[in-house]
Amino acid sequence: MTRPVPSHTQETRTLAHPDGGMAAWACWPAASSPVPALLVVEHALGIDLFIETLALKLTHAGYAALVPDLYHRQDPLHAPLDKMRQLRDAEILEDFAVAKSHLLRDPHIDPERIGVIGFCMGGRIALRALEEHTLALKAGVCYYGGNLRIAWGAGKTPLELIGEIEAPLLFHFGSDDTNPSPKDREELGQELARLHKSHVFHSYDGAGHAFMDFTRPERFREDASEHSWQRTLQFLAEEL
Questions:
Q1: Which of 30, 36, 37, 33 is nearest to 9 (CA)?
Q2: Which superfamily, per CATH, for 8-239?
Q3: Closest C-alpha among 184, 235, 212, 217 to residue 54
Q4: CB-CB contact of 35 with 29 (8 Å)
Q5: What is the pTM of this model?
Q6: Residue 97, CB-side half-sphere exposure with 13 Å CA sphere
Protein backbone atom coordinates (compact mmCIF):
# COMPACT_ATOMS: atom_id res chain seq x y z
CA MET A 1 0.00 0.00 0.00
CA THR A 2 1.26 3.48 -0.87
CA ARG A 3 1.87 5.63 2.18
CA PRO A 4 0.12 9.03 2.15
CA VAL A 5 2.33 12.04 1.55
CA PRO A 6 2.42 14.22 4.70
CA SER A 7 1.17 17.78 4.34
CA HIS A 8 4.30 19.03 6.05
CA THR A 9 7.57 18.03 7.68
CA GLN A 10 8.99 19.41 10.91
CA GLU A 11 12.26 18.97 12.75
CA THR A 12 14.84 20.62 14.97
CA ARG A 13 17.99 21.57 13.08
CA THR A 14 21.43 22.68 14.19
CA LEU A 15 22.72 25.57 12.09
CA ALA A 16 26.44 26.21 11.69
CA HIS A 17 27.25 29.36 13.63
CA PRO A 18 30.44 31.30 14.46
CA ASP A 19 29.66 30.86 18.18
CA GLY A 20 28.95 27.15 17.77
CA GLY A 21 25.78 25.40 16.65
CA MET A 22 22.50 27.32 16.83
CA ALA A 23 19.34 25.28 17.18
CA ALA A 24 16.38 26.13 14.98
CA TRP A 25 12.90 24.67 14.70
CA ALA A 26 11.87 24.13 11.08
CA CYS A 27 8.71 23.12 9.28
CA TRP A 28 7.84 23.22 5.61
CA PRO A 29 4.94 22.12 3.41
CA ALA A 30 4.96 19.26 0.97
CA ALA A 31 5.30 20.98 -2.40
CA SER A 32 6.48 20.18 -5.90
CA SER A 33 8.28 23.52 -6.30
CA PRO A 34 10.18 25.94 -4.03
CA VAL A 35 8.01 27.78 -1.51
CA PRO A 36 8.29 31.18 0.21
CA ALA A 37 9.78 31.16 3.69
CA LEU A 38 9.47 33.12 6.91
CA LEU A 39 11.95 33.59 9.68
CA VAL A 40 9.74 33.32 12.76
CA VAL A 41 10.98 35.23 15.80
CA GLU A 42 10.21 33.81 19.23
CA HIS A 43 8.51 35.83 21.95
CA ALA A 44 10.11 36.49 25.33
CA LEU A 45 9.15 33.02 26.57
CA GLY A 46 11.24 31.39 23.85
CA ILE A 47 10.33 28.69 21.34
CA ASP A 48 7.30 27.15 23.02
CA LEU A 49 3.92 25.71 22.11
CA PHE A 50 2.62 29.10 21.00
CA ILE A 51 5.52 29.80 18.62
CA GLU A 52 5.59 26.26 17.22
CA THR A 53 1.83 26.37 16.62
CA LEU A 54 2.03 29.67 14.76
CA ALA A 55 4.91 28.35 12.63
CA LEU A 56 2.82 25.31 11.76
CA LYS A 57 -0.12 27.53 10.82
CA LEU A 58 2.15 29.35 8.41
CA THR A 59 3.27 26.03 6.95
CA HIS A 60 -0.33 24.93 6.48
CA ALA A 61 -0.81 28.19 4.55
CA GLY A 62 2.05 27.25 2.20
CA TYR A 63 5.10 28.85 3.82
CA ALA A 64 8.25 27.25 5.14
CA ALA A 65 9.06 28.47 8.65
CA LEU A 66 12.40 28.60 10.44
CA VAL A 67 12.57 29.60 14.11
CA PRO A 68 16.17 30.27 15.20
CA ASP A 69 16.86 29.91 18.92
CA LEU A 70 18.01 33.42 19.79
CA TYR A 71 18.71 32.30 23.36
CA HIS A 72 21.43 29.88 22.24
CA ARG A 73 24.14 31.97 23.90
CA GLN A 74 22.32 32.04 27.26
CA ASP A 75 22.35 29.61 30.14
CA PRO A 76 19.38 27.28 29.51
CA LEU A 77 18.64 27.25 33.25
CA HIS A 78 18.03 30.99 33.35
CA ALA A 79 14.47 32.33 33.32
CA PRO A 80 13.21 33.49 29.90
CA LEU A 81 13.04 37.17 30.85
CA ASP A 82 16.60 37.02 32.17
CA LYS A 83 17.67 35.57 28.82
CA MET A 84 15.85 38.35 26.98
CA ARG A 85 17.70 41.01 28.97
CA GLN A 86 21.00 39.55 27.76
CA LEU A 87 20.13 39.81 24.05
CA ARG A 88 22.07 42.28 21.91
CA ASP A 89 20.96 43.61 18.55
CA ALA A 90 24.31 42.94 16.86
CA GLU A 91 24.27 39.30 17.93
CA ILE A 92 20.64 38.87 16.90
CA LEU A 93 21.41 40.20 13.42
CA GLU A 94 24.30 37.75 13.20
CA ASP A 95 21.89 34.96 14.08
CA PHE A 96 19.50 36.13 11.38
CA ALA A 97 22.26 36.19 8.79
CA VAL A 98 23.07 32.57 9.66
CA ALA A 99 19.40 31.57 9.51
CA LYS A 100 18.78 33.28 6.17
CA SER A 101 21.93 31.73 4.68
CA HIS A 102 20.59 28.35 5.76
CA LEU A 103 17.31 29.04 3.94
CA LEU A 104 19.14 30.18 0.81
CA ARG A 105 20.92 26.82 0.62
CA ASP A 106 17.68 24.86 1.00
CA PRO A 107 16.33 23.68 -2.39
CA HIS A 108 12.79 23.67 -0.96
CA ILE A 109 12.90 27.48 -0.53
CA ASP A 110 12.32 30.22 -3.09
CA PRO A 111 15.35 32.47 -2.39
CA GLU A 112 13.54 35.57 -3.65
CA ARG A 113 10.64 35.19 -1.21
CA ILE A 114 11.98 35.24 2.35
CA GLY A 115 10.31 37.40 5.00
CA VAL A 116 10.05 37.72 8.76
CA ILE A 117 7.32 37.58 11.39
CA GLY A 118 7.64 38.10 15.13
CA PHE A 119 5.57 38.33 18.28
CA CYS A 120 6.17 40.47 21.40
CA MET A 121 9.96 40.59 21.78
CA GLY A 122 10.01 38.99 18.34
CA GLY A 123 7.95 41.84 16.91
CA ARG A 124 10.66 44.30 17.88
CA ILE A 125 13.33 41.99 16.47
CA ALA A 126 11.40 41.49 13.23
CA LEU A 127 11.28 45.26 12.77
CA ARG A 128 15.00 45.56 13.49
CA ALA A 129 15.72 42.77 10.97
CA LEU A 130 13.75 44.63 8.28
CA GLU A 131 16.02 47.62 8.87
CA GLU A 132 19.14 45.59 8.10
CA HIS A 133 19.89 45.90 4.38
CA THR A 134 22.25 42.92 4.31
CA LEU A 135 19.38 40.60 5.21
CA ALA A 136 17.32 41.84 2.24
CA LEU A 137 14.04 40.52 3.64
CA LYS A 138 11.06 40.93 1.31
CA ALA A 139 8.27 41.61 3.83
CA GLY A 140 7.70 41.70 7.56
CA VAL A 141 4.90 41.25 10.09
CA CYS A 142 5.26 42.62 13.61
CA TYR A 143 2.88 41.71 16.39
CA TYR A 144 2.92 44.22 19.26
CA GLY A 145 6.68 44.73 19.18
CA GLY A 146 7.73 47.03 22.02
CA ASN A 147 10.94 48.69 23.25
CA LEU A 148 11.18 50.61 19.99
CA ARG A 149 13.02 53.48 21.65
CA ILE A 150 15.67 51.24 23.21
CA ALA A 151 18.83 49.85 21.62
CA TRP A 152 19.88 46.43 22.90
CA GLY A 153 23.59 47.04 23.24
CA ALA A 154 25.55 49.51 21.12
CA GLY A 155 23.92 51.23 18.16
CA LYS A 156 20.69 53.00 17.33
CA THR A 157 17.15 52.12 18.34
CA PRO A 158 14.61 50.54 15.97
CA LEU A 159 12.75 53.86 15.87
CA GLU A 160 15.92 55.75 14.93
CA LEU A 161 16.64 53.26 12.13
CA ILE A 162 13.12 53.18 10.69
CA GLY A 163 14.22 54.98 7.55
CA GLU A 164 16.32 51.96 6.57
CA ILE A 165 13.25 49.79 5.91
CA GLU A 166 12.80 48.93 2.25
CA ALA A 167 10.25 46.09 2.52
CA PRO A 168 6.50 46.30 3.18
CA LEU A 169 5.59 46.20 6.87
CA LEU A 170 2.42 45.02 8.63
CA PHE A 171 2.17 45.93 12.33
CA HIS A 172 -0.56 44.70 14.70
CA PHE A 173 -1.22 46.62 17.92
CA GLY A 174 -3.43 46.01 20.92
CA SER A 175 -5.32 49.18 21.81
CA ASP A 176 -4.81 48.48 25.53
CA ASP A 177 -1.09 47.76 25.20
CA THR A 178 1.42 50.02 26.94
CA ASN A 179 4.56 48.72 25.18
CA PRO A 180 4.15 49.53 22.35
CA SER A 181 1.90 52.33 23.57
CA PRO A 182 -0.59 54.36 21.52
CA LYS A 183 2.07 57.10 21.48
CA ASP A 184 4.62 54.65 20.07
CA ARG A 185 2.14 53.60 17.40
CA GLU A 186 1.42 57.20 16.45
CA GLU A 187 5.06 58.25 16.28
CA LEU A 188 6.10 55.16 14.32
CA GLY A 189 3.26 55.65 11.85
CA GLN A 190 4.04 59.32 11.36
CA GLU A 191 7.71 58.60 10.70
CA LEU A 192 6.95 55.80 8.22
CA ALA A 193 4.49 58.07 6.39
CA ARG A 194 6.98 60.95 6.32
CA LEU A 195 9.59 58.68 4.80
CA HIS A 196 7.08 57.18 2.32
CA LYS A 197 7.63 53.64 3.60
CA SER A 198 5.09 50.96 2.72
CA HIS A 199 3.25 50.04 5.91
CA VAL A 200 -0.12 48.91 7.22
CA PHE A 201 -1.14 49.31 10.86
CA HIS A 202 -4.06 47.61 12.59
CA SER A 203 -5.18 48.13 16.18
CA TYR A 204 -7.60 45.89 18.07
CA ASP A 205 -9.99 47.24 20.68
CA GLY A 206 -10.03 45.44 24.00
CA ALA A 207 -6.72 43.71 23.27
CA GLY A 208 -3.50 44.23 25.16
CA HIS A 209 -0.02 42.83 24.82
CA ALA A 210 0.30 39.20 23.67
CA PHE A 211 -3.31 38.99 22.50
CA MET A 212 -2.35 36.17 20.12
CA ASP A 213 -1.01 33.87 22.84
CA PHE A 214 -3.64 31.18 23.39
CA THR A 215 -1.48 29.59 26.11
CA ARG A 216 -2.10 32.61 28.36
CA PRO A 217 -5.87 32.94 28.85
CA GLU A 218 -5.54 36.22 30.72
CA ARG A 219 -4.01 37.84 27.61
CA PHE A 220 -5.55 35.92 24.72
CA ARG A 221 -8.29 37.67 22.72
CA GLU A 222 -9.88 35.31 20.23
CA ASP A 223 -11.48 37.92 17.97
CA ALA A 224 -8.30 39.98 17.67
CA SER A 225 -6.25 36.84 17.14
CA GLU A 226 -8.41 35.49 14.32
CA HIS A 227 -8.93 38.84 12.62
CA SER A 228 -5.24 39.76 12.72
CA TRP A 229 -4.20 36.34 11.44
CA GLN A 230 -6.41 36.61 8.37
CA ARG A 231 -4.92 40.04 7.69
CA THR A 232 -1.44 38.57 8.10
CA LEU A 233 -2.11 35.81 5.57
CA GLN A 234 -3.60 38.30 3.11
CA PHE A 235 -0.60 40.60 3.50
CA LEU A 236 1.87 37.75 2.96
CA ALA A 237 -0.03 36.52 -0.08
CA GLU A 238 0.24 40.00 -1.60
CA GLU A 239 3.76 40.96 -0.58
CA LEU A 240 5.81 37.74 -0.34
A1: 30
A2: Alpha/Beta hydrolase fold, catalytic domain (3.40.50.1820)
A3: 212
A4: yes
A5: 0.95
A6: 11
What are the backbone dihedrals phi and psi of residue 73, each rounded to the nearest 5 degrees, phi first? -85, -15
- pLDDT tens-place values along the chain, 240 residues long: 334 445 889 999 999 999 889 999 999 999 989 999 999 999 999 999 999 999 999 999 999 999 999 999 999 999 999 999 999 999 999 999 999 999 999 999 999 999 999 999 999 999 999 999 999 999 999 999 999 999 999 999 999 999 999 999 999 999 999 999 999 999 999 999 999 999 999 999 999 999 999 999 999 999 999 999 999 999 999 999
Amino acid at 152: W
Please give the single-letter amino acid code of residue 21. G
